[in-house]
Structure formats: C-alpha cells, structure tokens
Amino acid sequence: MTDLIVSPCNANEMEEVVRLLDQEFIYSRSRDISLARRFPNVFEHGGGSIVFVARSAGTIAGTIAVRRFTWHCQDREWQGAMIGSVFTKPQMRHQGIAARIMGEVKSYLSAERVDFGVLWTTIPELYAKSGWIPADTAVFGTAQGRPSHKSAGSIVNRRPLADVDTDALDRFRRQSCLDYVMRRKVDYQAIPLPASRVDVLLLEHDGGLQGYCLTGVAGSTAYVYEIVGDQQGFHLLWKSLVNDFDAIYINAHPSTQAHGWLSAAAAVSWCAQKLAMWLPVSKEAAEVDFNRWYVPYFDRM
After folding, report:
1. Which regions of the chain carry the CATH code 3.40.630.30?
2. Sign of CA dihedral 7, 12, 14, 18
3. N or C terminus of the chain with fewer C-beta within 10 Å?
C-alpha cells in the first residue's frame, strides 16, 4: 500500500481509534467496558503512552499502542515498552499494514533508548519476522471455589481497588518483591480483560498490612493477578478467594512466592502460557535471558 502514512495518533483521532478498537476487541466478543476506561494509562491524555496510527486516503487503517514502563529487576532498572492493540481494519488486512506500523514502532523504541519491548500473542510467527523472540515460562492456574463454606473472617477485608490507598499498597508491593513493574496512580485504575472490576483482598493485623491479593472479578469468577506478602498469611487470602468465588484463575510465574505456596498447599492445576515475546533494543538487553522475566497480568494491556 503506497499511500500509507504512519505516525502517532493525534487528540482529534483518539475517539475514532477507541471506537474501532472497542468494536474489534470488546463488543464483537460480547464483552463490555470500553478500552478507554479499562486502560486509562494507554488511551487517556497524559497516560504516558503512544498509539501509532496508519492512515490511507484519510482513513484509519490500523493501530499499535505502545506503553512505556520501568522494570525493576534485582538492583537495576530497565526501560521497557509493551505493545498492544495491534489492529488492522478487516477489509485492509494482508496488505502489510501491521508490519509497516511495527517498523515505525521499532524505530521509535530505538530513538527513545528503550531497553526492550514485550508483547503477548497466540500468533508468534507474525512477530518473529520483525525480530521478536518467544520467551515465556509463566503459568496459568485453575481452581474451583466453594462459596458455600464459611468466610475467612474479618482478618481478610475485600475492597474495590478504587477505594484503597494505592500508594501504601504499592510501597508494600515494592518492599515485598525483588522484581516488579513500577506503577503510577493511573496504572492502578486498569481493569484487565475479561474482568468487570478489580478488587483487593487485604490481610491486616494490628493495623498493619501483612499481605494482599489483587483480583479481577467477573460475576462469580476471580482472576488472580498477584498475591504478595508474608507466606504465613497466604492460606487466609486463598481461603477468602475459595469462599467467595465459583472459579479461580491465576496468572503467575514459578519464581514468585505465591506460585510456590499455591503449588504446595492449594488444589491448583497449572499449564504453560507461552505468550510473551521480547524485542532486545539496547546492547545490555541483548544479553538478558527473558525466560527469567515476568510482567504480571495486571500490568499488561
């Protein structure tokens, strides 16, 4: 396509971009809640992200969103960029539009001195042509709840994430984890698919936070994003989940304390995910074993 122009989305185009993406990823799949509300850190002005748009004859032909983030790994911080909302209008597919946008994205990552890019896909061959490397040792767990059982008691307090002091929660997370994505206030407003809201189970004792479980909720189903804190309290957080939901799905990595505890003490069935692909941009990132890295589901887009 010779007349294709690719550049960052301008403010006047964002409403149309969101409408196209919602139709593709939300409404056509019988979902609800616009992507603009689900990911304000991507689609709202000031969120710190860029949406690249391909235009042909004055109309939007495709998009790719780029969200910059800082990855804290051991004693070092890396500059990363996650890729999502890869979209081409149905009538314009198979014309190299996505590859053209991805080329612009790669140029942007190099110019901005990003260390690496990361995305998640079920069609890795599409991105391997552009230099993306598959590396994913994350796992997906499933468990059954027993909502008829008694509650875990008042020691575990389940609240909407929007009602929680996320600054305090984030300090606790960073103190408890070796590796993590740096989060801003706006990042805690995310509602990852397919959840309809995000709750947090707080384990508190003598006025202090001992642990928490960040959980997406869709009806009677829970999507566990992370369990953080003192392992001695994990059984109380897990009991609360089991008591409150019919089905529990867990995104985890074998390197996390939560995965180790759940594997030993809970009836969870695990399977490999094999979704993440990485693009080394800096020389330092080219030496990284990306199988050791894990971006929690809550931080993705």
Report:
1. 5-136+275-299, 139-272
2. negative
3. N
Task: State the 10-residue block means of pLDDT for the chain, 301 residues long.
Answer: 87 94 96 97 87 94 97 94 97 93 96 97 93 97 82 78 97 95 97 98 91 97 97 94 96 95 96 97 96 97 92
pTM of the model: 0.94
201 close to 156: Cβ distance less than 8 angstroms:
yes
What integer pLDDT is reported at residue 98 of this predicted model? 94
In angstroms, the Cα distances linking 28 to 19, 31, 284 are: 12, 8, 41
In this structure, the dihedral spanned by the alpha carbons of residues 144, 148, 154 and 157, taken in order and rounded to 10 degrees, is: 40
Q: What is the pLDDT of residue 74?
A: 82
5-136+275-299: CATH topology is: Aminopeptidase (3.40.630)
User: In CATH, what number does 139-272 get?
Assistant: 3.40.630.30
Question: For the chain, what is the largest distance between any 2 Cα atoms, rounded to a whole number of angstroms?
Answer: 66
DSSP conformation letters of 244-277? H-SEEEEEE-TTSHHHHHHHHHS--EEEE---EE
pLDDT given at position 155 = 86
**Collapsing DSSP states into helix, strand and coil, what is residue 99?**
helix
Place of tokens 């790994």: 73
Category of 201 on φ-ψ map: left (φ > 0), alpha (ψ -120 to 50) or beta: beta
